[in-house]
TrEMBL record:
<keyword id="KW-0732">Signal</keyword>
<dbReference type="Pfam" id="PF00704">
    <property type="entry name" value="Glyco_hydro_18"/>
</dbReference>
<dbReference type="GO" id="GO:0005576">
    <property type="term" value="C:extracellular region"/>
</dbReference>
<dbReference type="InterPro" id="IPR011583">
    <property type="entry name" value="Chitinase_II/V-like_cat"/>
</dbReference>
<feature type="region of interest" description="Disordered">
    <location>
        <begin position="415"/>
        <end position="473"/>
    </location>
</feature>
<feature type="signal peptide">
    <location>
        <begin position="1"/>
        <end position="23"/>
    </location>
</feature>
<dbReference type="GO" id="GO:0008061">
    <property type="term" value="F:chitin binding"/>
</dbReference>
<dbReference type="InterPro" id="IPR001223">
    <property type="entry name" value="Glyco_hydro18_cat"/>
</dbReference>
<protein>
    <recommendedName>
        <fullName>GH18 domain-containing protein</fullName>
    </recommendedName>
</protein>
<dbReference type="InterPro" id="IPR029070">
    <property type="entry name" value="Chitinase_insertion_sf"/>
</dbReference>
<dbReference type="GO" id="GO:0006032">
    <property type="term" value="P:chitin catabolic process"/>
</dbReference>
<dbReference type="InterPro" id="IPR017853">
    <property type="entry name" value="GH"/>
</dbReference>
<dbReference type="GO" id="GO:0005975">
    <property type="term" value="P:carbohydrate metabolic process"/>
</dbReference>
<dbReference type="GO" id="GO:0004568">
    <property type="term" value="F:chitinase activity"/>
</dbReference>
<dbReference type="InterPro" id="IPR050314">
    <property type="entry name" value="Glycosyl_Hydrlase_18"/>
</dbReference>
<feature type="domain" description="GH18">
    <location>
        <begin position="17"/>
        <end position="414"/>
    </location>
</feature>
Length: 473
């Protein structure tokens, strides 16, 4: 017969074994694919056979709490959650975004306000059958869309709210945030949060907004989501390095991949080279064709319009956005079905430094920056190789199965295969190569830029989702 002491010893040993098994499983679990579902887009879908986590996008803040954003069907939530659970995925809801963050600062400025919003979210998640909430505050302690309330205490209050929310939700619900690549500012908006270890204790994960590094606001064209800093001043590598070096665990980080494209009208019909290093401490020099001067933003896909629209601040604009979805580039005949080459006068290039593709037509001088199966699989391989939680697609409607298959394949590829060169989109052969490693540039490369704090407009709703479906918010 076992004595009480021996029973305790066996129990302790069993518990230790279980913890070791759990730790081993956590360490070997393949990273996952998540995506934002644009509820305001009629006919939008999710690749449920590939997606493990999906966020209903979007609910927006109000003076008294929050509400479902405009142009979203009343039965959309039920349909979304039902499809998620039927496919073994976890459905979450996003609160905030570019047009929906107006009232965060005031709501979270007091203990009473934080408790009120946390209580409202608890009830909402329960009755709508969401598995968690993704809080997308753009941005605490600095201006976002232009009319948000801003306070030096915003970032501190944000963390206090997340702690309050965790207290209300317990561990049975997921809590995540949309995170700028360079982190949050605090105080008067000039200092960065230096330590995120406390944030990590209350968050299940973060979605780092590694997109919108280039747009109509930029001085030149460039990649939307560069792997390396190059001449863009930031990228996926720098973003992950920032967050992990600031105390946030890699296994709780999703990097983001945009499924949209942005077009520009160049000033010249000839592409000019730019010389640079990778900007992330690499020793190689690159010649790149992705950085070009542009004169205007042309009409994008068929749905792009220059009809007047009103944003969340009441500002009216009437311009083309130049925006496309990857699937629209194929549907409208600019890109081959397999993504391997450009059509209708467009040539496809793959930039060696940023590791992203672009299309260029010298006749109309239209330049289109985008992501495809090759570039997306590179990011998926990076996530797998660096122990990240996975990749998030923004948004789910923009890619086809070819891209999703490439992402999931590289997320699940063994790490040793990544290290031996068996991954990262090498099956896609560019029609033209827009720069690669050069050992001796014909002109001296400029001094490499330090990675900037965040994309100039890491919008989480202001890019492709601007005029076409979010700028009316």
């Amino acid at each position: 017969m076992m004595t009480p002491l021996s029973t305790l010893v066996v129990a302790a040993a069993t518990l230790s074994s279980l913890l070791q098994v759990a730790a081993t499983q956590a360490a070997t679990t393949a990273p996952m694919l998540s995506s934002y579902f644009p509820a305001y887009t009629e006919g939008a879908t999710v690749a449920w056979n590939q997606t493990k986590l999906a966020m209903y996008f979007v609910d927006i803040t109000t003076k008294d709490g929050f509400e479902i954003g405009p142009n979203q069907p009343l039965d959309g939530i039920k349909k979304f959650t039902s499809q998620a659970y039927a496919n073994g995925a976890k459905p979450m809801v996003t609160l905030g975004s570019w047009n929906g963050s107006l009232y965060f600062s005031k709501q979270l400025s007091t203990p009473e306000g934080r408790t009120k919003l946390a209580s409202q979210l608890q009830n909402y998640l329960y009755y709508k059958e969401f598995k968690g909430v993704d809080v997308s505050w753009l941005y605490p302690a600095q201006q976002g869309i232009g009319c948000n309330t801003v306070s030096p205490k915003d970032t501190d209050n944000f963390l206090k709210f997340l702690k309050t929310l965790r207290g209300w939700l317990g561990m049975g619900y997921l809590i995540s945030i949309a995170a700028p690549p360079g982190g949050f500012l605090t105080g008067n908006g000039t200092e960065h949060v230096k330590d995120y270890s406390e944030w990590a204790t209350v968050l299940d994960h973060i979605n780092v907004m590694t997109y919108d590094y280039t747009g109509p606001w930029s001085s030149k064209t460039g990649p939307l989501s560069p792997m390396h800093s190059c001449a863009s001043g930031g990228g996926v590598t720098a973003a992950v390095k920032y967050w992990t070096s600031s105390g946030f665990p890699a296994e709780k980080i999703f990097i983001s991949i945009p499924s949209y494209a942005i077009s520009f009208t160049l000033k010249s019909s000839t592409l000019e080279k730019t010389y640079m290093t990778d900007g992330d401490g690499g020793t190689f020099n690159y010649s790149s064709l992705i950085y070009q001067s542009f004169s205007s933003i042309p009409k994008g896909e068929a749905a792009d319009s220059n009809e007047p629209t009103t944003d969340g601040c009441g500002v009216v604009t009437a311009n083309y956005t130049g925006q496309w979805h990857y699937t629209s580039l194929i549907k409208e005949g600019l890109l081959a079905h397999d993504g391997s080459k450009g059509l209708k006068g467009y040539a496809r290039y793959m930039d060696g430094c940023s590791q992203t593709p672009f299309l260029f037509n010298p006749t109309n001088k239209h330049f289109i920056a985008y992501e495809d199966a090759a570039s997306a699989s590179i990011k998926a391989g990076f996530a797998r190789d660096n122990g990240l939680k996975g990749v998030t697609v923004f948004t789910s409607e923009g890619f086809d199965d070819t891209v999703y298959d490439a992402i999931v394949t590289d997320l699940n590829r063994p790490k040793k295969e990544l290290e031996s060169g068996g991954a990262t989109g090498k099956s896609d052969t560019p029609q033209a190569q827009a720069g690669g490693k050069t050992t001796k540039p014909s002109t001296p490369p400029p001094s490499s830029k330090q990675p900037q704090d965040m994309p100039k407009k890491a919008s989480h709703g202001a890019g492709i989702l601007g005029k076409m479906n979010l700028r009316a918010r």
